[in-house]
Design goal:
alpha/beta; FAD/NAD(P)-binding domain; Enolase-like, domain 1; 7-stranded mixed sheet; 14 helices; 30% helix; globular
Length: 468
C-alpha cells in the first residue's frame, strides 16, 4: 500500500475535474486527478461531443432542404457520419487527454477512488492524502425507470445514452423512452440516420421544462423527420421477442404492443455518488452533494470537501460544471495561500450564475436555447413573446418558423431570461446571456444595433414589442 500526498485530490477526470485541478495548480498547488474510466469524461466520449456530431449533419441537411436552388440535399451517409463522430472522440482513446493533464502539471491516476477519511482518498489500495481539499467531480449516471421487464432485457437490446451516441449500427426500429433533451436529440439523430423511431413521453409535449411553444415546435420538427411521437403515454412492460434472431423488444403501452430492435432509456440522470465512501464523512450515498456558492460541501466540518458539476445537482450541464470547477479551484488555492475568499455575488469565488443565468441549448431541428428565467415568476415580471420574423430569418430559410420569449423585470427594465426556438438560433444565446448577467438596461440595449440582415434583428423587434 503506497502513501501519496498532494495539496488537492480531484475525483473524476471529466471536463469539470480537469478544470478544478488545473485552476488549483495554476494557483500554486499540487493536484492528483483520479478516474476509473476515460480521462475527458462523459462529455468527451458519450455525451455532448458525439451527440452534436451525430445531430449536425441532419440539421445541415434540413437547412439545405429549406433552401431552393441547392437541390434536395439527398440523404445522410451513416458511415461517414459515424467516422466524423469517432474522429472527435478519438475512437474512445484518451491518450491525448492524459497528455494534456500531465502538461498542465496535474498527476493523472487511474483507478476507483473512495473517500476513506478526512482529506483521505484510497485508490485501489493506494492512499492519497489531500493537504488542502478533496474535490468530487464524478458527474452523473443514467437513472433507470420502473418499467416491468426492463431489467431482464439482454444488454444488446437496451440502450442508454452512451450506446445511442457511440453505436455505429443503425437499428431498423428504435423506441426512445423520455421526451427530455437526450430523448429528443437522439430520436432526431437516429431518425435522420435511417431508423424508424418511436418516442414515448409521459407529458403532453417534449422538453417539459421549457415553454409550451418550444416543446410544440420540437414535436412538430420530430414528426417532420418521421419520428412517431406518443405524448402522455406510459410504457407498461417490455420483453424480449423470442425467436427474433438478432433480437427484438416488445413494448406494451395502453393495451397495445409494438416490436422494435432497440430501446433507448432517456428518462433522466442521477448524481454518481453511490460508491464514493460518503458514509465515512456522514453523508448519504447516492444523492447529490449540496454545496454553497464556493463549492464547499454542506455538512462536512473543516471545509475540506468540495464538489462541482452534475454531482451537486445545481446545474447539470458541462459548461456550468466547468464554471463551478474554475471557482472551486480558485477558492481552494486562495484558502491554501491564506488569501481571503471573496463572498460577494458575481465575484471570482462565487458561483452566482447558477441562480440567475444558466444557458442551455437543445440541438434538435428546430433548436431550442434559453438562459435565466423561462416563465414570469412573480410581481414586476413580464413575459414578452413574438415570432422570429425579420429579414434575416426570411433570408436564412424559406418558411422560417421561430419564436422567442423574454422575461423582463419591469421595475428595473432588465432582462431576467430569454428562450428561443427556431433553426440556427443557438448562436443568439450568448448575447442574451451577456444581457442577463450584465443586467443591461433595455434602454441601453436599444443602442446595441443588430446587423442587417441577420436573425439578430429580432432584438429590435423585441424592444419595440416591449414598448421602447
Amino acid at each position: 500500500m503506497a502513501q501519496r500526498g498532494y495539496d488537492v485530490v480531484v475525483i473524476g477526470a471529466g471536463p469539470v475535474g480537469e478544470n478544478a485541478a488545473a485552476r488549483a495548480v495554476a494557483g500554486g498547488l499540487t493536484a492528483a486527478l483520479v478516474d476509473h474510466e476515460r480521462f475527458g469524461g462523459e462529455c468527451s466520449y458519450w455525451a455532448c461531443i458525439p451527440s452534436k456530431a451525430l445531430l449536425r449533419p441532419g440539421n445541415l441537411l434540413s437547412d439545405v432542404q429549406r433552401m431552393p436552388g441547392v437541390g434536395d440535399g439527398g440523404g445522410l451517409d451513416p458511415a461517414a457520419v459515424f467516422a466524423r463522430r469517432d474522429a472527435f472522440t478519438h475512437g474512445g482513446d484518451d491518450e491525448g487527454q492524459v497528455e494534456w493533464v500531465q502538461s498542465a502539471g496535474i498527476e493523472p491516476v487511474r483507478g476507483h477512488a473512495r473517500i476513506t477519511g478526512e482529506r483521505e482518498v484510497t485508490v485501489d489500495g493506494d492512499v492519497f492524502h489531500a493537504r488542502q481539499a478533496v474535490i468530487v467531480c464524478t458527474g452523473s449516471v443514467v437513472r433507470m425507470p420502473s418499467v416491468d421487464g426492463l431489467e431482464e432485457l439482454p444488454g444488446e437490446l437496451l440502450w442508454t445514452s452512451r450506446d445511442a451516441t457511440t453505436s455505429s449500427t443503425v437499428p431498423g426500429r428504435l423506441a426512445v423512452l423520455g421526451g427530455g433533451v437526450v430523448g429528443t436529440e437522439m430520436a432526431q439523430a437516429w431518425a435522420r440516420l435511417g431508423s424508424e423511431v418511436h418516442l414515448f413521453m409521459k407529458g403532453a409535449r417534449p422538453l417539459p421544462g421549457y415553454p409550451a411553444f418550444a416543446g410544440d415546435a420540437v414535436a412538430d420538427g420530430l414528426r417532420c423527420r418521421g419520428v412517431r411521437v406518443y405524448p402522455e403515454t406510459a410504457v407498461e412492460r417490455v420483453s424480449e421477442v423470442e425467436g427474433s434472431g438478432s433480437g427484438a423488444v416488445r413494448i406494451t403501452h395502453g393495451g397495445t404492443t409494438l416490436d422494435v430492435d432497440r430501446i433507448l432509456v432517456a428518462t433522466g440522470r442521477r448524481p454518481a455518488t453511490s460508491d464514493l465512501g460518503l458514509d465515512v464523512v456522514g453523508l448519504e450515498p447516492g444523492g447529490s452533494l449540496p454545496v454553497d456558492d464556493h463549492g464547499c460541501v454542506s455538512g462536512v466540518d473543516a471545509r475540506w470537501l468540495y464538489a462541482a458539476g452534475d454531482v451537486t445537482g445545481r446545474a447539470p450541464l458541462t459548461h456550468q460544471g466547468k464554471y463551478a470547477a474554475r471557482i472551486v479551484g480558485d477558492v481552494v488555492a486562495a484558502a491554501a495561500l491564506g488569501d481571503a475568499v471573496n463572498a460577494s455575488p458575481w465575484s471570482e469565488h462565487t458561483a452566482t450564475a447558477d441562480h440567475h443565468a444558466v444557458p442551455q441549448v437543445v440541438f434538435t431541428d428546430p433548436e431550442v436555447a434559453s438562459v435565466g428565467l423561462r416563465e414570469a415568476a412573480g410581481p414586476g415580471q413580464r413575459a414578452v413573446e413574438l415570432d422570429i420574423a425579420v429579414a434575416g430569418s426570411a433570408l436564412q430559410a424559406d418558411d422560417y418558423q421561430g419564436r422567442l420569449r423574454a422575461i423582463v423585470d419591469t421595475r428595473r427594465d432588465v432582462l431576467l431570461g430569454m428562450t428561443f426556438v427556431g433553426p440556427d438560433i443557438a448562436e443568439l444565446l450568448h448575447a442574451a446571456t451577456i444581457a442577463v448577467v450584465g443586467e443591461v438596461p433595455l434602454h441601453r440595449l436599444w443602442h446595441a444595433v443588430p446587423a442587417f440582415p441577420t436573425i439578430s434583428e429580432v432584438w429590435l423587434r423585441l424592444l419595440e414589442e416591449y414598448g421602447l
